[in-house]
Specification:
Blueprint lengths: L7 H19 L6 H25 L2 H8 L4 H10 L23
Helix pairs in contact: 1-2
Length: 104
């Protein structure tokens, strides 16, 4: 159940901040297994809450379709089938995108 006092903008801001924290944490080269484990324990409820917020923002028909997907790979395959590929990268899945030109 989501907090009725939070606007969609509030929910999006929380999701953005959580994802940014994950990105920054993952860029640290000195992380140990224990660091990853503790990071996950500390943030699991935050991620679950943000995920619930996200579900609230997706129309019911689309959410039903997305819930049938079994992986992120399946999600990005659906995106490709829908033609939702950023032309700068040539692949819907960020794990397969070539970002080398961004770091030159």
């Amino acid at each position: 159940m989501t907090n009725p006092k939070l606007s969609d903008q509030d929910r999006i801001e929380e999701m953005v901040m959580l994802l940014d924290e994950v990105k920054c944490f993952m860029h640290k080269t000195s992380n140990t297994f224990e660091d990853y484990y503790n990071f996950a324990l500390k943030n699991y409820r935050r991620w679950a809450t943000a995920s619930s917020y996200g579900y609230d923002l997706v129309p019911a028909e689309r959410l039903e379709q997305l819930c049938e997907l079994e992986s992120m790979e399946a999600f990005y395959k659906l995106r490709e089938e829908e033609g939702k590929i950023d032309p700068r990268y040539g692949d819907a899945d960020p794990a397969k995108q070539d970002w080398s030109d961004l770091w030159d």
